[in-house]
Amino acid sequence: MSSTLTGRPATPVFSDLSPRLGVAVEGIDLRGTLAPGMFARLRQALLDRQVLCIRGQDIGPAEFLATMRMFGEPEIRPYIPHVEGFPEVTTISSGDRDTQGDGGRLVVGATWHTDDSFRSAPSALTALYGVEVPEVGGDTEFANLYDAYDALPEATKHRLAGLKAVHMMKPDREGIGRVRSLAPDVRAAAVPSVHPVVRTHPDTGRRSLYISRNRMDGIVGMDRAEGHRLIDELTAHAIQPRFVYRHKWRKGDLTIWDNRCLIHKANGDYPEGMRRFMRRIILLGDVPV
Ligand code: SIN
User: Fold this and answer.
1) Is the CB of 140 under 6 A from ligand 1?
2) Residue 289 in 3-state DSSP?
3) Is 278's C-beta closer than 6 angstroms to any atom of ligand 1?
4) How far apart are CA 93 and CA 182, in angstroms?
5) Does the beta carbon of 198 sit less than 6 angstroms from any atom of ligand 1?
6) pLDDT digits (tens, 9 = 90+) for 142-174
7) Is the per-residue pLDDT at 52 higher than 70?
């Protein structure tokens, strides 16, 4: 492979991160202008592979924001810790503390979830930029909900057709633990949303499960126990190793994922004292159908 004086490959190189999902690209510098046609390639790679990691970046919040604006409209969450002057660019840090609980370390997103399913139009894409990454641990895991759906028995697919689930910020359910967040309660978040259990991706047209166990209060028209049982079964099915890719972070990774066809999970398993610092941008999405 030919390379420039900076050590970047002269032509961007795409390589799959796992057999099922994820693609990395090397040889792109987001501080400059993308070559003609490159954005379309990146977007298509993300749609095809659900997780796109643009390696080796050295960007500030303005460049991060400009990149993500190509993919969609960033959400603004001024109540979450963010980079000063950039309310769209929130931060996730090994220094985060659970101020609403015991004051201990707070690992944002430590259970399998898709971002903000409690909203009527949940997030489409999320991007994390690795400013500081631990040498050990701190991976993000992704489960492919297209493949999980495709692998279901036909009878189960038939059972799920037309089913809707109630998603809320804090479901009234035993055994899911407190949802730990850096955000204070916001009124809008307290309003439940109803979404199909199987959704069709607006860009790929593919069907996937749409589940997020800790935000799901129940299934419409089912008694609570039966609804919870179904949610648990679908979750256990979706997070089998055969559907999961585990992203080991490198400093300078800008990793974008598609919340419409994945669930993901942060791992807080890096040693105390080791730093992990991420900048995050979440893009607005559509009402799931
Ligand atoms: C998240 O759930 O948005 C955070 C993922 C991570 O920090 O690995």
Assistant:
1) yes
2) coil
3) yes
4) 11
5) no
6) 999 999 999 999 999 999 999 999 999 888 777
7) yes
Q: How far is CA 196 from the centre of its chain?
A: 19
Instruction: Determine if ligand 1 sits within 6 Å of the CB of residue 109.
Output: yes
* 125 Cβ below 6 A of ligand 1: no
Phi/psi-derived region of residue 149, left when phi > 0, alpha when psi is between -120 and 50, beta in every other case:
alpha
Domain ranges of the chain: 13-283
Fold for the domain defined by 13-283: Double-stranded beta-helix (3.60.130)
Closest ligand 1 atom, residue 280 Cα: 3
pTM: 0.93
Residue-wise pLDDT for 100-129, tens only, equals 777 788 888 999 999 999 999 999 999 999
pLDDT, residue 5, reads 57
Sign of the C-alpha dihedral, residues 176, 182, 183, 185?
positive
